[in-house]
Structure formats: structure tokens, C-alpha cells
Specification:
mainly alpha; Phosphatase
Length: 65
């Protein structure tokens, strides 16, 4: 519970604390970094499929014109 001086009990500044959403997002980023490090072949395949899809979309766009 914050005190009126802008600090939590124990001397932690309110400005220094992070919201639950920020902490959750940091945890998610760290998990994703670890997963990518452990699964480089899956990351490579996902990237290949992504760019292949983008190339198809661009090709379809060119045909419409």
C-alpha cells in the first residue's frame, strides 16, 4: 500500500515499480527468447513460411492490377 510520500512501505518508489502487465510481457519475451534459442530449426521454418506467404500475397496483388 503506498504511503502519501510516493513510496511503498519499505522505501520502494512507486515510479520504480512495474505493472503486472509489464512484468508479464517481460516474462513472455524471456520465454520466447529461450524457445528460439532451443529451436532454431523451427524458427527458420516459420520465417521461411512467413516470407513465402508474403511473396504469394505480393504476386497476387500484381495480378489484380
Amino acid at each position: 500500500m503506498p504511503l502519501s510520500s510516493g513510496y511503498y512501505k519499505g522505501g520502494i518508489s512507486i515510479a520504480e515499480t512495474k505493472t503486472i502487465q509489464e512484468l508479464a510481457r517481460e516474462a513472455q519475451r524471456e520465454y520466447q527468447r529461450q524457445w528460439r534459442r532451443k529451436n532454431p530449426d523451427k524458427v527458420r521454418e516459420m520465417n521461411r513460411r512467413y516470407w513465402e506467404k508474403k511473396a504469394w500475397e505480393k504476386a497476387k496483388e500484381g495480378v489484380k492490377r
